[in-house]
Amino acid sequence: MSDMRYKLHPVSAFINFMKSLKELIIPFIVIFGVNIFRDGGVGAMFSQGWTGLLPLLIGLVVVLFSLVVGIIKWKRFVYWFEDGELRIEYGLFIKKKRYIPFERIQSLNYTEGIFHRPLNLVKVRVETAGSGKAGEAEAELTAIKRVDADRIETEIENAKHRAIPVMGPLEVQHEQVDENAVPEKKELKTLYRMSMKELLILATTSGGIGVVISAVAVFLSQFSDLIPYETIYEEVILFLRFGYLIVALAVFAGLLIAWIISVILTLLANYQFTIQVDKDHIYITRGLLEKKKVSVPFKRIQGVKVSRNPLRELFGYGVVTVESAGGSMGGKDEKIRLFPLVKNDRMLPVLEELFPEMEFQPELVKAPKRSVHFYYRLDFLWMLPLIGVLSYYFFPYGLLSLLIVPPVIAIGVWQHRTTGYALIGRQLTMEFRGFSKHTFYVWKKRVQAVNVLQTYFQRRRDLASIEATIKSGMLGYSARINYMEKEDASRILDWYHPAPVTAKQKGQPE
Amino acid sequence: MNDQPKNKISRKGLTVWRLYGMIETFVLTLLVGGVAALTYFFGWPVWLYAVYAGALLLFAFLLIYLFPKIRWQRWRYEVREQEIELQYGLFIVTRTLVPMVRVQHVDTEQGPILRRYDLAEISISTAATTHTIPALITSEADELRGMISALARVAEDDV
Where is the YdbS-like PH domain (chain A) (predicted)? Predict the structure, then answer.
């Protein structure tokens, strides 16, 4: 019925072009960078006539080429709906066809970049379950109109409603009458909107600084061959004569700038963070320049994790991530941040509304007292030789290394204090700490396997560690609580044992 | 928790692990031989040879005799109607429980050494994890694979 073939918006040609330009930046910097450091600098390129201009010409050709490629890619890309499938045809030299059955589509994720916003367009990513094989049907529509995106959604919705009652021709007839009623936009309920205050706290306390610094470090190491270190070195020596104060100030200024950049990036990415729900999806919208909308089907949610680093724990803030199965191949979207940062008392009502069958503040069974030394005992394996070597070779001052012992023990004790679990009905809760505290909530039906681990020493003291694995993205995520009472391990195993087969279930195989 | 899973893996598995241990020891011998040659050429102290020999003997003992023995004695598995239970580990003893409902597929696999001893290993995959029972008699492994896949199909989600 809808054999109409749709194209992407022309701006996608431009977006394709920009994307390939972005990939070209580094080779370009290399080409021109090398020339700058040759004698004569860039100016020499022009005075040498033909051969000097060669790199520039090649660059120009490459840019033109990628522009043409961008346009062709857009020209070639068509999608349409047929036989309950989303069909896409694309390809530069080789024509590729990709057919995705509607039932397989898990969710449509929208992104609005800076080029999309003024034209009211969206980028749509079609997410499928991806059954474990990389490269399985997954599609990206670079830029389409909002209404077109909505049309895809209604098509899928229609198809799903038609597909469910496969009874007979009569039923199908009946369904088709209903069809017009179904596509009405589903009611979206907004559960949470991040306040400016929370956003600011998030931006200023997030660990994004490290990311920026390491990015700069990586960037510099990439070009270490091209940077004339001798010249720089001399200047550094000169610089050093100004004294350490200036160096320290420079370092501080550098860190400050890095921090400000990270604050701005976080602000932009999480601006107007909103959680909305309908019957079977959670929608997360965020972003200022690039607006992102991610949808998570409730069906795919495997577990919920609340993480609090010590600083945030102190002020009652936490990060909530949702482990979802399948989804994108990219690997970074598997852990969906439900709350990038939220105060406990604001988080709980929302979580309770989202997962009504889950208890978020259960009474925890803690690790037994006698297991406390297990938490730091192993650390002595690396600490003792280290302290020994340092003390021996740097005799008086090396002894200072003994100072690391108390903090390590303190962290061990702290980890011991945090560790605990709770079993309520079909829900398992585990709380543990590396440095940050993690609380992990999971349903029995989502646990893929349970491991109980015991070393020789643990066996002697009747202790055991317990590990529960759930599916997260393409892989698994394991939550582990260490050095619990052996009884507790038994209790978790008993809880996890499948219920004995009842007569009723046996009566109806398949 | 105190009752172990009841099936042991094949006795021939121990032989195979000893064989692996011998191969590892052989590689180690080559390395030690190299170091000994260096010692000879550079004229390092003579007592080092004794250290090398001692280390080699110790590793041979551990890799060929002790570790395979402990591992073999520790390895237990049991396939029940609703679940699979495994126990294994050299230093850390791990007990694993996998409900039948979670089993996605079962594979058997056989390398050249295992084939020579008519053994096969069986891998049970869930959506997130893979569990391997090493060294079962081939016919037993095939039977077990059939059984697990049949049970996995029948098993109903109890939640």
Answer: 74-155, 272-337, 417-496
For B102, which of A449, A501, A510 is closest by C-beta distance? Answer: A449
Candidates B72, B1, B74; CA nearest to A463 is B1
The burial class, CB within 10 Å (0-12 / 13-18 / 19+), for B79 is: buried
Helix (H, G, I), strand (E, B) or coil at A215: helix
Q: Do B95 and A493 touch (CB under 8 A)?
A: yes
Q: Does B129 touch chain A (CB under 8 A)?
A: yes
Q: How many helices (H) and strands (E) does chain B have?
A: 5, 7
Q: What is the pLDDT of residue A327?
A: 52
Identity of the amino acid at B24:
E
Q: Domain check: are A132 and A63 in the same one? A: yes
Say if residues A108 and A153 touch (Cβ distance below 8 Å): yes
Q: Give the three-state DSSP class for A112.
A: strand
> Across the interface, which of A426, A456, A489 has its CB nearest the CB of B1?
A489
Find the CB nearest A452 among B91, B95, B102.
Answer: B95
Q: What is the largest CA-CA distance in chain B?
A: 71
| C-alpha closest to that of A297 among A275, A283, A286, A281 | A281
Same domain? For B54 and B104 the reply is: no
Please tell me the distance in Å from A291's CA to the nearest CA on chain B.
Answer: 32
Instruction: Count CB-CB contacts under 10 A for residue B120.
Output: 25
Q: Identify whether A432 is part of a domain.
A: yes
Structural domain of residue A393, as residue ranges? 369-415
- B128·A486 Cβ contact <8 A: no
Q: How far is A502 from chain B (nearest CA, A)?
A: 10
Nearest-CB residue to A455 (from B91, B97, B102): B91
Range of the structural domain that residue B148 is part of: 78-154
In this structure, what are the phi and psi dihedrals at residue A389, rounded to the nearest 5 degrees? -60, -45
Chain B positions touching A474 (Cβ under 8 A) are: none
Residues B33 and B93 reside in one and the same domain: no
Query: Is there a contact between A448 and B126 if contact means CB atoms under 8 Å apart?
Result: yes
Residues in CB range of A109: below 8 A, 6 or more apart: A124, A125, A127, A292, A293, A294, A295, A333
Q: Is the pLDDT of residue A178 over 50?
A: no
Interface confidence, given as ipTM, is 0.83
Instruction: Say whether pLDDT at A56 is over 80.
Output: no
B42 touches chain A (CB under 8 A): no
Give the confidence band of A403 by pLDDT, cuts at 50, 70, 90: confident
Chain B residue at shortest CA distance from A501: B82
- Given a cut of 60, whether residue A509 has pLDDT beyond it is no
Whether A451 and B98 lie within 8 Å, measured CB to CB: no
Question: What does the block give as tokens for A88?
Answer: 């896409």
| Residue B61 C-alpha, separation from nearest chain A C-alpha, in angstroms | 20
Domain count, chain B: 2
